[in-house]
Amino acid sequence: MTRLLVLTCLLTAASAAAAQTMTRASAPNFSRSAELFERDWVLMNWALKFYDRDRDILLSPSEAQAAAAEFRKIADADSDGRVTPQEYRAAREFILARY
Ligand SMILES: [Ca+2]
Ligand SMILES: [Ca+2]
């Protein structure tokens, strides 16, 4: 019983730490989403075409985040949750050719 309680405490602490890490990680990620498009006109055009919901020709943080999430989905060919430089280039070419 005691052992179970300790385990539960450990798990709770672990998930709390994970949640904190995610919160910390999502803040800089947020600004990087916009940066991704500011640095690359191909991605910017694509993002504006499909994710500029209010048509002000600007990517708001939420629009940039939605576009970045979609870009990651397109780019992450092996679904490991990360976009390598090669995957990035491939996705960029895919977008350039298709859109
Ligand atoms: Ca907009
Ligand atoms: Ca990947």
TrEMBL record:
- Give the signal sequence positions: 1-19
Checking InterPro entries in the record gives: EF-hand-dom_pair, EF_Hand_1_Ca_BS
Q: Which UniProt keywords apply?
A: Signal
Q: Decide whether keyword RNA-binding is in the record.
A: no
* Domain of life of the native organism: Bacteria
- Protein name (Swiss-Prot/TrEMBL): EF-hand domain-containing protein
User: Can you name the source organism?
Assistant: Sphingomonas hankyongi
Phylogenetic lineage: Bacteria, Pseudomonadati, Pseudomonadota, Alphaproteobacteria, Sphingomonadales
